[in-house]
């Protein structure tokens, strides 16, 4: 029987392996995001593949690539049934051995990291242990399946059972992700809130710039626009209205916005030196990073410009 690899054989095998890698990485990415949300850690470790609360990309990738992997694998094994000699083609052996090599490295690295943290006296947190266990189980399953497959010990019935079990696990992980991290609508609302924080921060910097050029805080946002020809004042991306701005006194101003969700983890995101109300002037009192923590609903942020950190260019 002919056992030379054709172009069809090459691309089917390559596509199946690439789809496998994509599904594996996306699955771990989704699981890690769920773990990060359920067990937040102060410091990130080597297993923190991405942060934040968004799950759109790993879920979308799993929805597309897992069926693609099943379909490509079906055609690959159909070729084996029609021509068993095809199991000996070099492309199949190379790709499977590469997969085994990568899975073996992940298993070894996972165990080394856990052992290192233990011997080094570091805290083995719940989040870290769950991530390590996830990598261990996924890499172990991939390694175990393909080591049996290369030995031709996986029957057609066993492959179908594997596909069903993995499909159920992926479906559960997607449902779990949505239940912990929120639906697409929730993610959209969070995106709106994040953009509002970014916009408020931009307006804050424009107010500081106006102070430095004019020696006074603008009475309204229109003052900023009229003073600088090319400046763009951000507007609320959700309501399409202008953000609330008020001049409180000579050195104090307030910015307000309507938020969809509570977020008490927006501290230290930006590097503008503006002190909150109640903090005295002076370099020791300057807050290096603003606090944009907010609850759901209308939230206002009061700021005091430090003239020492931001001296005006206007000479009296």
What is the overall shape? elongated
- Broad structural category: alpha+beta
State the major sheet.
4 strands, antiparallel
Overall number of structural domains: 2
Counting DSSP E segments of at least 2 residues, the number of strands comes to: 4
* End-to-end Cα distance: 95 Å
Whole-angstrom Rg: 28 Å
Strand line-up in the sheet with most strands:
1-2-4-3
What is the strand and helix layout of this fold?
Blueprint: H1 7-38, H2 56-82, H3 90-119, H4 126-150, H5 156-181, H6 184-214, H7 221-227, E1 244-247, E2 252-259, E3 275-276, E4 297-304
Antiparallel strand pairs: 1-2, 2-4, 3-4
Helix pairs in contact: 1-2, 1-3, 1-4, 1-5, 2-5, 3-4
Describe this protein's structure.
The protein has 316 residues and is α+β, with helices and mostly antiparallel strands. The chain has two domains: 176 residues, no CATH class; 116 residues, no CATH class. The chain is 56% helix and 7% strand. It has a four-stranded antiparallel beta sheet, with helices on one face. Strand 1 and strand 2 form a beta hairpin. Helix 1 packs antiparallel against helix 4, helix 1 packs parallel to helix 5 and helix 2 packs antiparallel against helix 5. The protein is elongated, with a radius of gyration of 28 Å. The termini are far apart. About 11% of the residues have low confidence.
